[in-house]
Write a structure and sequence with these properties.
Elements (H helix, E strand, L loop, with lengths): L6 H4 L4 H14 L6 H7 L2 H12 L1
Helix pairs in contact: 2-4
Length: 56
């Protein structure tokens, strides 16, 4: 599943899904050195943080 391409799914994600996404993105950086920069450039982390603030 590509969360970046399906942002509406992120809007209904629970706290555990958000946690898993952060973990996956940090681990992905080990294999692709620009992954985190790409996620920041596309505001994916910002979207995840906004959703996280609504779940807590």
């Amino acid at each position: 599943m590509k969360w970046r391409d399906e942002a509406e799914r992120l809007n209904v994600a629970d706290i555990y899904t958000i946690q898993k996404l952060f973990t996956v993105h940090v681990h992905q950086e080990r294999f692709c050195s620009v992954h985190l920069a790409d996620m920041l450039a596309h505001n994916h982390f910002l979207t995840m943080l906004h959703r996280l603030s609504k779940t807590v």
